[in-house]
Request: fold
Amino acid sequence: MRVLMAVFLTVLVGAASLVSIAAAEREVVSGHLMPFKCQNDDKPTHTRDCALRPECRVTGYGIALADGTFLQFDADSNNKAAQLLERSTKASDLIAEAEGERVGPLFRIRTIRLK
Reply:
């Protein structure tokens, strides 16, 4: 019985640690929503119409951060970004705020909105 209780407590502590690690990985990022293909274009003048062109859309989306890095989205997040752009009426200066987590070199969006 003591061994079973020790195993249970070990599993419980391990699970609690994983939950706190996962929660710590969530972050909010803000920057210009851009297709990967256009990441080096002028951010404020880059247009929604360009971002929705097939040749841009197929490369995926991400957020150009203020420090110059480009945070590329995963496949599901690309769909969320495309849907946001399709619904938006904002023509350019597509500043977005996204909440999510980094998964390897990519960013997985939980929520995204244009500012």
User: Anything to note?
Assistant: Strands lie at 26-35, 61-64, 70-72, 95-103, 106-114. The first helix runs from residue 2 to 25. Confidence is low (pLDDT under 50) at residues 3-9, 15-21.
